[in-house]
Write a structure and sequence with these properties.
It is a single chain. The chain has 15 helices and 11 strands. Strand 2 and strand 3 (28-29) form a beta hairpin. It has 2 domains: 2-198, Spore Coat Polysaccharide Biosynthesis Protein SpsA, Chain A (Alpha-Beta Complex); 212-390, Four Helix Bundle (Hemerythrin (Met), subunit A) (Up-down Bundle). The protein is of the alpha/beta class. It starts with a strand and ends with a helix. The longest helix is centred in the last third of the chain and has 30 residues, at 287-316. Helix 9 (213-232) packs across helix 11. The chain is elongated. The strands form 3 sheets. A 7-stranded mixed beta sheet has the order 5-4-1-6-9-8-10, with helices on both faces. Strands 2-3 form a two-stranded antiparallel ribbon. The protein has a two-stranded antiparallel ribbon with strand order 7-11.
Length: 391
């Protein structure tokens, strides 16, 4: 079992008495983002270590609790030890730490009594020095037994610092801070303006997690540009799906009235909207809605290809385009259903309309449908070979 221990004691540098943990970050608060990462690693319990409780912190804790995990506010190591499950591996998150999913997973699945460290003492990731060559990077894994050991020390000791010293004295193992996390802005930050900038870096790293060529070259740049702005404005969860729905209907209408190219283009805008919306939902901790939007991308892609095939068949008075569209959708669907780990060049739901668009805009929809049908079949063949190799 994994439990999280998040420190939330320090005040923000530019927000009066407000806690840094409750500073805005990526459309939520920093502590909600930290909790989101821990829950994503399988944490079933979260402990929030505080010196004082503010209304903003209580509101954030209530929102975290709605995600289906037990949340306890603790004021000392003694309280934390009493609340922690005796068999839990406890993941510690330093006060005001901005990090990434990759770094959190690296420490969450490490053995207890492990510190994440970096050699760069002057970097924002440096929290406290642990030896001559390393500084703590703000993440640690420890056992409930170690937490009880800390609980036996005087309460006037700083909880976070004492925890670190006890773990170091116990011969803790060390794992290096991932380079990708460092580039994405991993580090301690208590300035609200700088937190907004760090939030943008983390949002960009989230968008970069998609590796297929349509995402890498088209949709990820769009999401990287749009995500920080949408998160800062508190875009409602229904906005991206609603926009995608309107654009898709408009695209179908355009195809019906003989403008297949415009129809495909409008559908691509809808796919881009869902791509960004799914990342935003993930960031807010709504995995169900994020997965639904990913599924909707595949649905829109299939509808777009089939509608283009029907429009081309009506225009050319031949069944060839609609047959090609059906073949492409069937092959792509089987490839997606396989669950095989995709290579970067494999076809994807977002990629097929992207290939089709220039052909449809040029008035050669049938040629584009032929290309994506062949591409889908080649991808399906690669999927089969991949599964055979693993069998």
């Amino acid at each position: 079992m994994i439990a999280g221990l998040i420190f939330a004691t320090e005040a923000a540098e530019d927000r009066g008495e407000a806690l840094a943990a409750t500073s805005p970050f990526g459309g939520m608060t920093l502590i909600e983002y930290q909790a989101r990462l821990l829950i994503g690693c399988g944490a079933g319990q979260l402990m929030i270590a505080v010196a004082r409780v503010t209304p903003a912190l209580l509101a954030a804790v209530n929102r975290i609790a709605r995600r289906g995990v037990a949340v306890d506010v603790v004021r000392s190591a003694e309280e934390a030890a009493a609340k922690a499950h005796p068999l839990a591996s406890i993941v510690v998150v330093a006060d005001s730490l901005v990090t990434t999913d990759q770094a959190m997973r690296a420490i969450a699945f490490a053995q207890p009594d492990t510190l994440m460290v970096t050699a760069e003492a002057a970097s924002p990731a440096a929290v406290e020095r642990v030896d001559a060559g390393h500084v703590w990077a703000g993440l640690a894994a420890l056992s409930a037994t170690r937490l009880k050991e800390i609980a036996g020390m005087p309460r006037e000791y700083d909880f976070q610092s004492t925890l670190l010293r006890v773990v170091v004295a116990g011969g803790a193992a060390q794992v290096q801070l991932p380079v990708a996390a460092k580039r994405a802005g991993h580090g301690v930050e208590r300035n609200a303006g700088a937190l907004a900038s760090r939030g943008n870096a983390v949002l960009a790293a989230l968008a970069n997690g998609r590796t297929g060529w349509p995402d890498r070259f088209v949709f990820t740049p769009v999401s990287r540009f749009a995500l920080p702005k949408l998160a800062a404005r508190g875009l409602p969860h229904w906005a991206a799906p609603a926009a995608a729905g309107v654009l898709t209907v408009a695209g179908l209408a355009a195809a019906w009235f003989g403008s297949a190219g415009a129809g495909v283009l409008l559908s691509l805008f809808g796919i881009a909207s869902l791509s960004t919306g799914s990342l935003l939902s993930w960031l807010r901790g709504d995995d169900r809605r994020a997965l639904a939007q990913e599924a909707a991308i595949a649905l829109i892609a299939a509808i777009t290809v089939l509608a283009t095939g029907v429009a081309a068949s009506v225009q050319d008075a031949t069944l060839t385009p609609v047959v090609l569209a059906a073949v492409a959708v069937a092959a792509a669907g089987m490839g997606e259903r396989s669950g095989a780990r995709a290579s970067w060049w494999w076809g994807s739901p977002a990629g097929y309309p992207l290939i089709l668009a220039p052909f449809a805009l040029a008035g050669f929809s049938w040629a584009g449908l032929a290309v994506i049908a062949v591409y889908a079949m080649v991808t399906l063949g690669a999927v089969v070979e991949s599964l055979r190799a693993k069998a």
